[in-house]
Specification:
This protein has helices at about 65-75, 145-160, 175-185, 260, and strands at about 1-5, 10-15, 20-25, 30-40, 40-45, 50-55, 60, 75-80, 85, 95-100, 105-110, 115-120, 125-130, 135, 170, 175, 205, 215-220, 225-230, 230-235, 245-250, 265-270. By secondary structure, it is mostly beta strands. The longest helix has 13 residues, at about 145-160.
């Protein structure tokens, strides 16, 4: 059975309670597969990027047919702003039906008019949002040209800059290191493993660390970052004084140099054939 995330952010927990660690967050409009019921009100689910956790039924729209239809019709994603208000009518004074974070999925209805796009929400309601906030929902890489795809990846990761660190987070309300890198790839149409490691069956493969290029991933013990070029990288860090998505450098002469990470990188990974 499938279900649709019907809240801005649906936490996936280790246990069937909100009073425990979050292992991941699934965003509005994403479809999950229900694996089993843990206890009444709590379900073990698997995401479309093959990650599992326990979700509260209050956060899901539990209807197999609706979920399948939604999955087939979704064509837009919140892409160009950290958040998106869906309004009851196409004017800024309209009342807010739903506020959605970057990465949320919607169905666009018809063509934009005067800067407004009519959209359908997961529960069937219709509203409006600024058309410039949305982008195409992609299930394949945004570009077949390597340079363009690498630029798209670094632009996507930098769109989260300034977001504070949240363990298990994957939205502009808070994001962790692997959530940041996996969301950047997801926004560009590529599904990579959710955690900070290379896993067989996903499209990131190990490469020599001296061959890294923008968009490649840098792995440290329990941590991952995206390489930007010229010795700089973007990551989400819980280190005091940074707290969130920042840019750091491998160059000791740079003010944002991180000596601890410079000497602890264990491998690099790439989507690209090198």
């Amino acid at each position: 059975m499938k279900a649709i995330v019907n809240v801005p952010v649906c936490p996936l927990y280790q246990k069937p309670t909100r009073e425990c660690s979050v292992v991941d967050e699934v965003l509005y409009g994403m479809v999950v597969e229900i694996l089993d019921e843990v206890i009444p009100g709590w379900l073990r689910v698997r995401t479309h990027y093959r990650y599992e956790g326990i979700a509260c039924t209050d956060d899901l729209l539990l209807d197999e047919k609706t979920a399948e239809n939604w999955d087939n019709q979704v064509n837009q994603v919140v892409l160009h702003k950290n958040f998106c208000d869906v309004l009851q009518e196409p004017k800024v004074q309209g009342w807010i039906m739903q506020t959605l974070p970057l990465g949320s999925r919607l169905i666009a209805l018809g063509a934009p008019e005067k800067g407004w796009q009519q959209v359908q929400l997961a529960d069937g309601r219709r509203g409006y949002t600024m058309s410039g906030i949305l982008g195409a929902y992609r299930t394949a890489p945004v570009s077949a040209e390597e340079g363009a795809l690498r630029r798209a990846l670094t632009e996507a990761v930098l769109s989260y800059r300034g977001t504070h660190y949240r363990w298990g987070g994957k939205s502009p309300m808070g994001i962790d290191c692997s959530g940041l890198c996996s969301m950047a790839y997801m926004l560009c149409g590529i599904q990579i493993y959710r955690d900070a490691k290379i896993v067989e069956g996903f499209p990131i493969h190990e490469i020599p660390t001296d061959r890294i290029q923008p968009g490649d991933l840098l792995f440290f013990p329990g941590h991952v970052a995206m390489y930007l070029g010229q010795g700089r990288y973007c990551h989400s860090t819980a280190k005091a004084g940074s707290d969130g998505v920042v840019i750091n450098s491998f160059n000791p002469d740079d003010p944002d140099y991180r000596e601890d990470l410079h000497h602890s990188m264990i491998m690099a990974g790439s989507y690209f054939i090198q």
